Amino acid sequence: MFNDITMLNLGFPENDHELFEQNKIYHNKQLGEFIKKSRDDSKDSTCYNCGTPCTSFCNSHSVPKFCLKKIAVNGQLYYSNTLINVPVLDSEKGINKAGTFRIICRDCDNKMFTDYENPDNYLQVPTGKMLAQIALKNYLMSISKRKMEIAMYNNLSKMYGKTVSQHQTINNLDLNQFTGGFKYAKKATEMKWDDYYFLLYYENLDYIVPIAFQNNIALITDFEGKIINNVYDTTSNYQIKYIHICIFPLEKHSVIIMFIDNGEKRYSSFYKQFKKLSVDDKLKTINYILFSYSEDIFFHKGIDNVLLNNTKLREVAQQTSVALTSNPFTNPIKSAANAFDLNKRNTIPNFLDEANKIK
Ligand SMILES: [Zn+2]
Fold it and tell me: How far is the CA of 109 from the centre of ligand 1 (A)?
């Protein structure tokens, strides 16, 4: 069906697992050193936000701690790797290590996110300022991740003498976009006008969902197969447009938030189609988007294993948009649109459904 294109799958084949297990200590040590070196190389000497010289960066959380606490059991939670099953990464995480990044100083971390990181502010629709703070955090995390990846590719290329220029071009383009997104969000947090972002969807559920999430996603296609982002377009003037999604489990309820930059036309058809769905179907769509596009989902540790072991769910979670193609005449974006087809939303368990709430 996909001709020569196979969507790169993140899972490890069983026999690779065995091989890995046999040499686990060696592999972990090698990988540990590689990651440490890359992390050191990617580190700046100043806070990304205020520019103050900084030696000890804040351990910032992508998803607010109070949400992670809600789904943790004895301080531990599962994250997407539980499904992706890459043996060198841990599948269980302590709250302090869950989805963290280090590029801003403690002072900035304490000041930048105060509105959105206050659980009392979720009793009503989030303000524009809260959305701006969420976007700001998302871009900081993306910038941090991309810098780390650039350093990793540089080190890989040094180690194996292979050129990785195509990857680096994409990484650098991404980094530019994230920097632009960060600047826009920063301006939005400082302005008194509330119109920098458009809230596509807000839902207040009167139960606690077993997953937590906060990130930006580049949707590839809408419900009718129309391309929203051609993630394979590497021309420098092509812009990827992100949608921000949050799943926040709170004390007695959960909120779901989805927003874009105000005036962003790329998501118009998606929004029109999404708006017509029932609440149940909207939740299924968001659930499917998270599992198919992201590797940053946190799970309640007490979650039913039958759900986590669902074959289709694992398949969807392992899919990435990195297309491997041996034929330059095939069109990867069409294959990607097929692979990420939102009409497959009914094929995986819906973690946002009340039936799966935390009791
Ligand atoms: Zn700072």
Answer: 7
Contacts of 101 (CB under 8 A, 6+ apart): 60, 62, 140, 141, 144, 145
What's the gap in Å between 6 CA and the centre of ligand 1?
43
- Cα(172) to ligand 1 centroid in Å equals 23
Integer Cα distance of 127 and 257 in angstroms: 11
Which residue intervals of 43-127 are DSSP H helices? Answer: 65-71, 81-84, 106-112
Ligand 1 centre to CA of 55 (Å) is 11
Give me the residues near ligand 1 (ion), CB cutoff below 5 Å: 47, 49-50, 105, 108
Burial class (CB within 10 angstroms; exposed 0-12, middle 13-18, buried 19+) of 120? exposed
**How far is Cα 134 from Cα 69, in angstroms, rounded to an integer?**
19
pLDDT digits (tens, 9 = 90+) for 9-43: 555 555 566 666 666 667 677 777 877 888 888 88
Give me ligand 1 centre to Cα 48, in Å: 7
Q: Residue 7 corresponds to which amino acid?
A: M
H/E stretch holding 187 reads: helix 165-190
Q: Encode pLDDT of 253-271 as tens digits.
A: 999 999 999 999 999 999 9
